[in-house]
Write a structure and sequence with these properties.
Helix content is about 40%, strand content about 25%. By secondary structure, the protein is of the alpha/beta class. It has 2 domains: about 40-205, Endonuclease Chain A (Endonuclease, Chain A); about 230-395, Endonuclease Chain A (Endonuclease, Chain A), CATH 3.30.870.10. It has a 16-stranded mixed β-sheet that branches. The chain is globular and about 60 Å long.
C-alpha cells in the first residue's frame, strides 16, 4: 500500500512539473526577436583578464549610461571591484543599471545589493518567480550577458563576473570563453534587448524607452545579426548553421546535450563529407552535465567526428562555425536548457575574415586537447554509466 501511494505521489509531481512547464512557457514566455542585419566592428576575447581589463576601462570612461545584464555576479573580490566601479560611476551621475538573474546570481547578497542602491545604481533581478508557474519560472532563466556603454560600445558572450573567469578557481583552473566587443550600429540592438529585459523585470513590458538608431555605414565593418531567443527558435538557428557547412563544422560548448534533430543534422553533415570538430571540457562545473553528453558521443565518434576534451582548465565558450560562411558567438549553450528554456542572445557573423580569426582561435584550443575515442568511452565505470542514465533522464533541465 505504501509503495502504491509513493508511486502515485511521484506520478502527480511529474505531471505537475510537466503542466507547469508547458502552460507556464505558453503564458509567460517573452517574445523572441531577430534583429536586422547590421554593420559592426568586432573584437574577440577568450581570456578573462583581457576581457575584464577592457570592460572595466570602458565602464570607467562612460559619460552617460552603463547598462549591464549578467547571469552571474558573485560575492568575491572580483565582484566587489565590479560593484565598486558601478557605484563610482553612479556617483558621477551616469545612468547605471545592473540586471542579474535571480538564480544565477544567488550569491550576490543583500549587503551588496543595498550598497548598489545606496550609490544610485538601478538594480533589478530578472525572471522573478511567479505563482502558479513556479517550476517554469525557476527554470526559465535570463542567461543573456550584455553590456552597453553610452549606447556606442557593446559586449556579448559567455563571461560572467567572478574569480573563476580569471582562472582563480583551483578546481576549474584556466578558464577559456568567447566574448565579443561590438561597436557600430549593431549596438542599437543590444540596447533594445537590454531595455526589453529591464522593462520586463519591472513588470512593465509596455514601457519602451527610446533607442537612438545610429546608422553607421563603413565598408570595413563586419555584417552581423543578433538573435534573441526564449526557447523556441534557437534549434532552427543551430540547424541552419550545421546545414550550411560544406567542408568544416566547428562546435564549441561547455554542455553538449543536443536534440534528435541536431544529432541527425551533424551525422548528415559527416555523410556529405564535412569534417566535424566538437570541443567540450574535460572537467565539469555542474553535476551530471558532462555525463549527459556521453549518451550522444559514441554515435558521433563512430561517424568520424573529432571530439576533443579541453584539458588545461574549463572550456566555457559557445561557438559554432560553418566553413567561413557563418559563425555564431553568443550566450547559448548546445544543450536543451538553452534551446527550450533560457533567454539567450547570439551574434551571427557573416564576415569571412573575422570568421577565419574565430576559427583559428578555436583550432588553437584544440591543439594538445585529447581526442576522445571509443575505447575511452568504453572505459567509463559503472558509476559513470549510472550517472549518464540519470543525466539522460533529466536532460531537458540540464
Amino acid at each position: 500500500m505504501l509503495a502504491t501511494v509513493i508511486i502515485l505521489i511521484v506520478i502527480l509531481i511529474v505531471a505537475w512539473f510537466a503542466i507547469d512547464l508547458g502552460v507556464g512557457k505558453k503564458e509567460l514566455m517573452q517574445k523572441e526577436r531577430t534583429f536586422p542585419m547590421r554593420q559592426a566592428s568586432l573584437k574577440l576575447f577568450t581570456d578573462g583578464t583581457k576581457f575584464y581589463n577592457d570592460l572595466f576601462k570602458s565602464i570607467e570612461q562612460a559619460k552617460h549610461s552603463i547598462h549591464i545584464s549578467f547571469y552571474i555576479v558573485k560575492n568575491d573580490e572580483v565582484s566587489k571591484k565590479f560593484v565598486d566601479l558601478l557605484c563610482e560611476k553612479a556617483n558621477q551621475q551616469v545612468d547605471v543599471r545592473l540586471l542579474v538573474d535571480r538564480i544565477g546570481s544567488i550569491k550576490l547578497n543583500r549587503k551588496m545589493r543595498k550598497h548598489l542602491l545606496a550609490c544610485g545604481v538601478k538594480f533589478s533581478f530578472s525572471r522573478r518567480l511567479k505563482f502558479p508557474y513556479l517550476f517554469y519560472t525557476i527554470n526559465a532563466r535570463n542567461h543573456r550577458k550584455m553590456t552597453i556603454i553610452d549606447q556606442s560600445i557593446g559586449y556579448i558572450g559567455g563571461f560572467n563576473i567572478g574569480q573563476e573567469y580569471l582562472g582563480l578557481d583551483p578546481t576549474l583552473g584556466t578558464w577559456k570563453d568567447y566574448h565579443l566587443k561590438v561597436t557600430g550600429e549593431a549596438v542599437n540592438d543590444l540596447q533594445t534587448q537590454f531595455l526589453r529585459d529591464w522593462s520586463s523585470s519591472m513588470n512593465d513590458e509596455e514601457q519602451h524607452e527610446e533607442v537612438i538608431d545610429r546608422q553607421i555605414k563603413d565598408p570595413s565593418m563586419q555584417i552581423v545579426q543578433f538573435r534573441s531567443t526564449e526557447g523556441v527558435s534557437l534549434e532552427d538557428h543551430f540547424l541552419h548553421i550545421i546545414n550550411e557547412a560544406k567542408n568544416e563544422l566547428c562546435i564549441g560548448t561547455p554542455y553538449f546535450i543536443p536534440t534528435e534533430s541536431l544529432m541527425a543534422a551533424i551525422l548528415k553533415a559527416r555523410k556529405r563529407g564535412v569534417t566535424v570538430y566538437i570541443l567540450i571540457p574535460m572537467r565539469a562545473d555542474h553535476p551530471l552535465v558532462r555525463d549527459a553528453a556521453f549518451s550522444y558521443l559514441p554515435a558521433l565518434v563512430e561517424a568520424g567526428c573529432q571530439i576533443h576534451q579541453f584539458y588545461y582548465g574549463f572550456y566555457h565558450g559557445k561557438v559554432m562555425i560553418a566553413d567561413e560562411r557563418i559563425c555564431d558567438v553568443g550566450t547559448a549553450n548546445f544543450d536543451k536548457r538553452s534551446l527550450f528554456l533560457n533567454g539567450e542572445i547570439n551574434c551571427f557573423i557573416f564576415d569571412p575574415v573575422f570568421i577565419k580569426h574565430v576559427k583559428e582561435t578555436f583550432h588553437t584550443f584544440l591543439h594538445d586537447c585529447p581526442l576522445l575515442s571509443l575505447s575511452d568511452i568504453k572505459k567509463r565505470t559503472w558509476f559513470d554509466k549510472f550517472k549518464q542514465g540519470v543525466a539522460t533522464f533529466i536532460s531537458p533541465l540540464l
